TrEMBL record:
Keywords from the UniProt entry: Methyltransferase, Transferase
GO molecular function terms attached to this record: S-adenosylmethionine-dependent methyltransferase activity
Entry annotated with the keyword Methyltransferase: yes
GO terms, biological process: methylation
Database matches in Pfam families: Methyltransf_11 (PF08241)
Methyltransferase type domain ranges (all copies): 71-119
Record-given protein name: Methyltransferase family protein
Length: 250
């Protein structure tokens, strides 16, 4: 019989990111987010979760926050005013949250109209997802991935798109990546490097991780965008890692 999720072996997220598969996943996500945020303009950006990912380092908004937690975090009450943020990045934060629905509703609240949301999620319909599920069915043995969510289930790509649609988010871009099998050593991951090209071409939706970029739409509003002067005002500023209640570091 399946083991009790509360008694299942678990892996510390920060430690797992230092393993060969963790570094492999992090490198793919870093490349995706750098390309996505470099030309997103505004004034206020927030990253929730996965502090090992420099999700805002390529962005030029003057005020950036990085709120990092490990497992089962309560992000559902964000200390920001409604419609005050231009960009929110959720690298596996939905998998960290005790209530993923509540977190998405809170993100929708704090984003301004036409604000951007970027999400990274682990794909249950992948070799990595299957390996994790089979590992949980065993009575002993360490799982391949950290048990992000209570119970260990990941949020499927199409399921998340449905949630976003209900909250009036429009998906602008989406892609999958990380097609090598769930291997633990650097040597074996290198041997399977060829799977990246083959997987992205022949079974693209079976990548171990997915990336979604969405925009918050408000019915009846048409945002012209930031003026040239405002864009010039958005100078580089370092991202700040905060822990508990977060204040703007002007």
């Amino acid at each position: 019989m399946p083991i009790d999720p509360g008694k299942a072996p678990s892996i510390d997220l920060a430690a797992w990111l230092q393993t060969p598969p963790g570094r492999y996943l992090l490198a793919w996500e870093q490349a995706q987010v750098d390309a996505a945020v470099v030309d997103l303009f505004g004034f206020h950006a927030l990253q929730l979760g996965l502090p090992g990912l420099g999700g805002l380092q390529a962005n030029r908004m003057p005020h950036r926050w990085v709120v990092g937690r490990d497992l089962h975090s309560e992000f559902e009450a964000l200390p920001f005013e409604s419609a005050s943020l231009d960009l929110v990045l959720l690298p596996h934060a939905l998998e960290l949250a005790c209530d993923a629905h509540a977190l998405l509703r809170e993100v929708e609240r704090v984003l301004r109209p036409e604000g951007r949301l970027i999400v990274f999620g682990l794909n249950p319909a992948s070799l990595w997802g299957l390996r994790q599920k089979l590992g949980r069915l065993k009575r002993r043995g360490e799982p391949f991935l950290p048990n992000f969510r209570p119970g260990g289930d990941f949020i499927g790509y199409w399921r998340l798109r449905d949630w976003l649609k209900l909250l009036s988010f429009e998906v602008e871009a989406a892609r999958f990546g990380v097609y090598r099998p769930p291997l633990r050593t650097e040597a074996w991951l290198q041997r399977w490097q060829w799977a990246e090209g083959v997987g992205s071409r022949w079974w693209p939706v079976l990548g171990a991780v997915y990336f979604i970029q969405a925009v918050k739409r408000v019915q009846g509003m048409r945002m012209i965008g930031l003026s040239k002067n405002k864009r010039m005002a958005a100078k580089n500023a370092p991202a700040v890692a905060l822990n508990n209640h977060h204040k703007n570091n002007d």
